[in-house]
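Here is an idea for our session: we take a single protein and study its fold together. To get us started, please write out a protein record for me. Start from the sequence, derive the backbone structure tokens from it, and show both lines together. Go ahead whenever you are ready, and we will take it from there:
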Amino acid sequence: MTARAQTPTRVWVEQIMGTVVSIHAVGTGGDEPGVAQAVADCCAQLREVERVFSTYRDDSDVSRLRRGELSLEDADPRVAVVADACQAAERATGGRFSATWQGWFDPTGYVKGWSVEEAARTFLAPLIDRPGIVAVGINAGGDVRVFTDTSSDWSWHIAIADPRRHGEVLATLDVRNGAVATSGTAERGLHIVDPATGSTARHTLSATVVADDLTTADVWATAAVVARDLDWVREAPLTAGMIVDRGGRVRRFLSGVEIEVVAAA
């Protein structure tokens, strides 16, 4: 997520949910106190979500649920909301995404996209109505949500890592309003599991999805890595996307239709 050199941009960087979160405010108003407060409130909400949902914290609601120390009814109300949403995502993706495939509730693959979307809409999106702010965006470990003033010609340039060549860029997407999520092997290696088999998904190196919101983009990027074909694309609520398969082919699609297949380099 990059900014033009001639445009003033204020950037905040925090470590949240086990990853680096950066928030960018574009325009001359980035130094206003209200902007910094909105950023602080956004980060505070993300940390609160981490406290409730982290599978790495013994005292989180999700960990206590798994150990049988807490019922869903007594948990933070957001846990039930996320549990219902995960069930809906499992149905929508044909089982390619699941928060319960291990036999217990682990919403890790859903919570980051959902929490960033909720916090960004609540605290960051309103900033574009403030004088001097033309765009605002958040990058959480490579998953990006951006907002741009409709009267501005600003466009975000979002780089997609090449899973075949460490440190190199596969493509750059221009997005004004929306979300981009990438799942795959570029940063964390083989870590996505096919819920149907319990084995690591290996036939797709990376999947990048562009959607109206980060919740949708994140879920479907994960599902795309698990999928063995592109049949799902026609039904998914996506704007565009890109898949790099195990053989190195780059397959691009737009509004549910595959538009290009590039031979392995």
Notes: The chain has one domain: 9-262. The chain has a mean pLDDT of 88. The first strand starts at residue 9 and ends at 16.
